[in-house]
Amino acid sequence: MSDMIEILERELASAVEVKDRGALHRCITLLVESVVGRKEYARGERPVSREIGELRSEVRLIAERMEQGFARMGERFAATDKRFEDLTHHMDKRFESVDKRFEDMNKRFSMLVALNTTFFVVLAAMMTVLRLFG
Description:
By secondary structure, the chain is an all-alpha fold. It has one domain. The protein is 95% helix and 0% strand. It has helices at 2-15, 21-133. Helix 1 (2-15) packs antiparallel against helix 2 (21-133). The radius of gyration is 52 Å and the shape is rod-shaped.
């Protein structure tokens, strides 16, 4: 950068009449620093925009992965719902069969109680008949 300042200072001094060499040096220094600063800014701007572009693509990639993950979770929930429905249907059938068995057992028990009652009524009647006539 100092080489550029010296070259510009010599060229400008030879091109125009210089009244104050210090002022010329300060003017050229400010000019060169301003130009170099703009170049560095322009160079620095490109990586930032590139980084922003990369960041955007990474965010898009993350969003796509999240959407895929949500889709997979939706499929898993649907499969779980299906399994739950199958399990519920199977349990309903088992409870229906258990209910039927209890109803059958209840009928048998009712028939047994009726048979025992009939037996004891007949037995009591026979004992009464035997006592009266026997």
